[in-house]
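Methods, example record. To illustrate the input and output format used throughout this study, we show the complete record for Response regulator transcription factor. The sequence lines were provided to the predictor; the line carrying structure tokens was produced by it.
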Amino acid sequence: MTAPVPTRILLADDHGLVRRGVRLILENEPDLTVVAEADNGAEAVAQASAGGVDLAILDIAMPRQTGLQAARELSRLVPGLRILILTMYDNEQYFFESLKVGASGYVLKSVADRDLVEACRSAMRDEPFIYPGAETALIRKYLDLAGQGRPVPDRAITEREEEILKLVAEGHTSKAIGDLLFISTKTVERHRANLLQKLGLRDRLELTRYAIRVGLIEP
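The corresponding predicted structure is encoded as:
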């Protein structure tokens, strides 16, 4: 009897040590193999879009594109690709966001050695996986909202504002952000003013603290 072909995995995390540790967990299993790695969201999108990958495991807080931004793009570009979010953030909003962008599961790094292999297998069976500690509260809330005909919590900020917030928090000037996103400095400043107003913050320092708190960048 021929052995089943292992699931081909793309692993994206901006920390080499994390990738190495996760790779060891996955490659200890005969049905899983890591065929590609990326250290930022944009590279993850490029590699997964090129083909040869069945499952993408994406960290949330990565340079250039977050894991959620990459997941959103990959869901459009590679509809058959399964996606898992691997994160240090036990965060309800990011759980909902992960579902909305097409991820099959949400796994905490702190228990990856326990949960990640099963999450991969669940994703390949088209079954959702949410880490056990969150399952009861988060799934109940999600089902309650759906049952009442109420929407899942909306994004606090738009995708473009999220991009700009991340770049501001990383220390880029308005001109540099404009150059990266192909928009004018004035447009960047307008988005930045909107962010401060929406989030009730005062300056770049508070924007940076907010970005760290919600997982857009790491401290």
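Annotations derived from this record:
Residues 159-213 form a domain with the Arc Repressor Mutant, subunit A fold (CATH 1.10.10.10).
The chain has two domains: 7-147, 159-213.
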